[in-house]
Amino acid sequence: MTDIIKLEEEIKRREKLAAIGELSASIAHELRNPLASMKGSFEMLKEDVLPEETKKRLMDIAISEMDRLNAIVTDFLIYCNPRPPAMERFNLSAAANEVSDMLQNISGNVRIVKDIQDEVFMVADEQKIRQLLWNLTLNAVEAVPEGGEVGISVSTDDNNVILKVSDSGAGIPEENVEKVFYPFFSTKKKGTGLGLSIAYRIVEEHHGSIKILSGKGRSTEFIVTLPLQKTEN
Questions:
Q1: How far apart are CA 86 and CA 191, in angstroms?
Q2: pLDDT the model gives residue 104
Q3: What pLDDT, in 10s, does the model give residues 106-117?
């Protein structure tokens, strides 16, 4: 029995080391891309003969990549050092409306359609739930082309709140559905690859569940179920 326990501990240790190695490689990859872009822009900016318009474009690229680096580091810190939820009663309907309105302002021609039940109150960490809504909806916005549509829904049953975020994009291939919550997994050019990982962790912290309805060539829908009241550990 002792040998079996030792073997199980060794397997767990190796799995943990493998996970750390995979995460480290992902971080290095995500940081290298914007750094390479910034380096290329700055090297070209050293040329005195460049037109002012080109210099401005290169500087805009460098600033954009700096913002991207900052977003990666910020999301990584949130993912690695989550604070305990601060549970309080708040108006989820108001929070969902505010998040969707803010995203509509930065989403260009993507239309955000709301179906939010009035006066839904729940006991949860309001800031984390806002982060959950933001991450899921932003992910949907980034998945659709110009002129596409994103839906956000809030409803309740007897003991739970149901959040749904859908998009009219190209869908998620079946082989990738299980991977979308992995840190730094992304098939998009935008984003840090941590938004859905953070969303998944927030759902877990609130003793909820999240599932995906999708497939290649069809729309995608994330369905989150959370308890309306605080659930004891």
A1: 27
A2: 86
A3: 787 889 999 999
Give a three-class secondary structure readout of the chain: CHHHHHHHHHHHHHHHHHHHHHHHHHHHHHHHHHHHHHHHHHHHHCCCCCCHHHHHHHHHHHHHHHHHHHHHHHHHHHHHCCCCCCCEEEEHHHHHHHHHHHHHHHCCCCEEEEEECCCCEEEECHHHHHHHHHHHHHHHHHHCCCCCEEEEEEEECCCEEEEEEEECCCCCCHHHHCCCCCCCCCCCCCCCCCHHHHHHHHHHHCCCEEEEECCCCCCEEEEEEEECCCCCC
Which residue positions in the chain have pLDDT lower than 50?
none
Which CATH number is associated with domain 2-80? 1.10.287.130
CATH superfamily assigned to domain 88-227 = Histidine kinase-like ATPase, C-terminal domain (3.30.565.10)
**CA–CA dist 67, 206 (Å, integer):** 30
